[in-house]
Write a structure and sequence with these properties.
This protein is mostly helical. The chain has 5 helices and 2 strands. It has a two-stranded antiparallel sheet.
């Protein structure tokens, strides 16, 4: 929840943005945050040491320090 709260604030999302749904009825924003976390984890940029905990890895810190542009191609 902290990650979603941070992102919604950072990107200044409206209540309407936060209520948008995907065709299956799930929340669009939560779905996108979850997929983003999945891709970042597979790329080794974040880790989940325990349930509901997300931490940046040393590789993730290096990518941030280098100001690498994170694209889907880069993450893949």
């Amino acid at each position: 929840q902290e990650v979603r709260d941070y992102c919604s604030s950072k990107f200044d999302l409206s209540e309407e943005d936060m209520r948008a749904t995907i065709p299956s009825g799930g929340n669009l924003f939560c779905n996108r945050v979850s997929w983003t976390q999945t891709y970042l984890k597979k790329a080794g940029l974040i880790a989940n040491p325990e349930r509901a905990v997300v931490v940046i890895t040393p590789l993730g810190e290096k990518v941030l320090d280098d100001k690498t542009k994170l694209t889907l191609d880069f993450v893949k």
